[in-house]
Prior knowledge:
- This protein is 32% helix and 14% strand.
- The chain is of the alpha/beta class.
- Strands 8-5-4-9-10-11 form a 6-stranded mixed β-sheet, with helices on both faces. It has a 4-stranded antiparallel β-sheet with strand order 1-2-3-12. It has a two-stranded antiparallel sheet with strand order 6-7.
- The chain starts with a helix and ends with a strand.
Amino acid sequence: MRTLTTLLNDISGNFGVAFAILAVPAMLAGGLAVDYVGLSVQRSELQNAADAAALAVAREGNISEAEARKVAYQMLSANYGFSAAEVSVSMKDGVADVQASIDVPLVFGGFMGRKSMPVAVDAEATFAYTKYEIALVLDTTGSMAGGKLVSLQNAVVGLVDDMAALGLEKEQIKFALVPYAGFVNIGPTHGPEINGAGKVTKRAARWLDQDAKSPIPQSDLPAGLSRFAMFKHLNVKWPGCVETRMPNGNKHYDVNDIAPDPDDEHSLFAPSFAPDEPDTPWAYPNSYLPDEGVPIAGKGKGAKSRNDDDDDDDDGDDADPAVERMERYGKTGKYKKPKNTDDAMAMVMKWKKPETDFSPSRFYSNKSDPKGPGFGCEIEPLVPLTNDFTTVKSTVKKLKANGSTNMLEGVMWGWRALSSREPYSDGADESDDSVEKIMIFLTDGQNSFGNLNNDLGSGYTSMGYLVDGRLDDMTSASTGQTTDALDSKTLAACTNAKKDGVVIYTIRLEEPDVATGTLLSNCASTKNHFFDAPSRSQLAPIFESIRKGVVKLRLTS
């Protein structure tokens, strides 16, 4: 008879046999669980890689499927390590569809007769329906001459072509082109039309100071005398430049995009008018009339501003030294302050035509432009926002290098070109979240006021002469002081534009000056929006980087 102990031993053996039998499927289940987790991890990583690849392909825009597959494969292989992935790409209606698959080795799959398991993912990316308004603010000063300007032109044309090739709707991309030097040329078509009899047949744009209402000091013209009338009197067409607006109280017209109001004389834009300077060729660049009467003088030399008028008889004779200096422009008899441009034209039509010398100026070694009231405005007119890419590119190709560097006016007119407010109202409303307003600002030099060692302290600028005191009330200053003052105003303009929703990219081209680099870095929207280009050969890849940063994409898978 078997004992109880023997019986128990027999039962434990059965348990062992049963456990051994059951252990096999248990181990397989655990192994398969490990494989499943591994497959899930690989699928997740492959999906992330495919998403990135789809975005990369979509960012390239209108490329062939072979090129698209190459871009996608490089992204999966180089960035994510999926060098053995099978990749296919299709492009249709602006959507990039990337399909990727890999074989994942199985740890325990061999027990089931499989050594690997395929993992496949699908990712789609498309351009978000974003509108792009891009202002190209380009330094065309004299130092840009030669290879730098050519490299800039090629890089800008390449950017426009690449953006056009993205396949977006025509209304989704608009460019404005703002060349700048000492001035920005807004275009002569905004000025008035005056016939041979001196009659204004078409008024200037409402935001231009046609009737000399703006209280901006003018070193050579008395109060109320329309600059447009003086251009007509001298038989010279106004070339299209305007001066920098002056702040008034808490309204900083010089660094803020405050819409001009015909009822607010401080907000209007005064047309540039380069005064005739003394006949001293080694000290003054722009003498185009015989010198008679009182020498030209600004605020710093005791002259009153052009709107000062403290005489009792209101005939203007003693109100401003500029009245006496009018002799050089052919004034005869007493001067009576005109009420408007028609009144001014009627007056100057009676003046004797002065002898003029509009020969090329020889003062600057790199500038030989004709002397005259338009001196300093030898710059291509800006192009307002447009989707006519041909016009933008053809204007870029016409740019010429000339003049000094006035970053403030470049930034301000770049901002105005993007704005929904006058003087240009082509931009979308600032509250429209579907629109990206972008300024690409480039310079190759420091801010310059054009300081000169003469009685005026400088050449004629968008702020008049240094002695006019329109740059922080300075009537005498060193080059370093005027550059610092312009830098401060430029940074204020950038800061205000960014607050208004403008994204700013800045490029320093072959300019080692540390202060300029700091200014441009601070002007940019972020440190990554600032590009330093020690060589002009870097411009094309910089503009390509900007293009990729500008374009907004979204995943649709």
